[in-house]
Amino acid sequence: MIQLTPLQLETLRNWFTPERPGPLVGLHVLQTGNGQCFVDCWPNSRTLLVNTADNYMLAGDPETLTPDDLQLRIAGFVEAPERFAPLLRAVFPDLRLWDRVVFELKTKPALLLPAKQPIRRLEPDDVYHLQRMRPEINWIWNTWGGPERLAASGYAWGAFANERLVSVACSFFVGDHYEDIGVVTEGEFRGLGLSVACAGKLCEDIQGRGKQPSWTTSPENLASVRVAEKLLIWGTANKREYSLILKFAFIGVHSRFEIWASYLVDNPSIVLEDSMIARMWHGMTPAAKADDYLEVLKKTGVPDYQSTEGNRGVYILRRIEGDRAHFLLITHWDSVEAIKKFAGEDFEKAKYYPEDAAFLLEFEPHVTHYEVLVNSSTV
Question: Which pLDDT tens digit goes with each residue over 302-321?
Fold first, then answer.
């Protein structure tokens, strides 16, 4: 394949339209200069492969490519039309599908700024603070080519605690009409609303540029989904306002990181005739009390759920993160009326038990509800 210069790539801008919310690999490379583009031939290209920070876009005619073209160049997230699926499977035989959901901002963000941690736009001198962030979250600057470029870009906001940068939101992909957001927060500062505050200020910035923010995440990444919900901007579950869903596939392990690929599926959701509602509650305890609190849940909330008519199942998820334990309770229900039998008329209000006071670090006031659109047992 032939690598294009920025001026050559500019002549192929129409390959990246019409623009839609979500990852914007090709447009980001055009807008920022951070990335590479390869084509099968020049001029009169029939296929292109664009890369920024191990995020890839394939477009055109897969018949012009060989397995070696991909094997030697792809190691990351790949967005491709479904017609590329046979070639990707031939190159990476261990494909496993993985969903991503893209939210689009259609209103102004609801901002709640923290009292103790100042939030501001990052400046070139903040490169020092970015470089001090822990390795597991410094991917935030990857699509900008490094901390120096992100700090100087004007496209990032940060939260500071004791003069330390502890949370960052930036435009991870920059398009002509959309900007897709990335957010990270240091582990010990999560749960303080810093991700929400930084993302909210960034959303205001994006709207000020005359563009719309989008947010791409995995449906299973509930922490990411919760940030979007707390901004009160991404639509409501009962109106099905998700913009689109991307099907990703897990390919395997390459070097020291995982390789992923994706297929853009026009209508991937399967609406169940026998629909359900999922209710999600989140709580945090000290990690040292995690096992004891699990037993409390089994004796209080779980039997309460199960004994309520219309409940179809209870799931307890737990993640230990430093000195904190995160609990996520997911329950499935026949209807809103069934949920009200458990929670009362104000069914979006969280329900607590006297035993919770000895364990929970905070009492989150509300739960979230989603329609269950896809059930793996029916696919």
Answer: 989 988 988 888 889 998 88
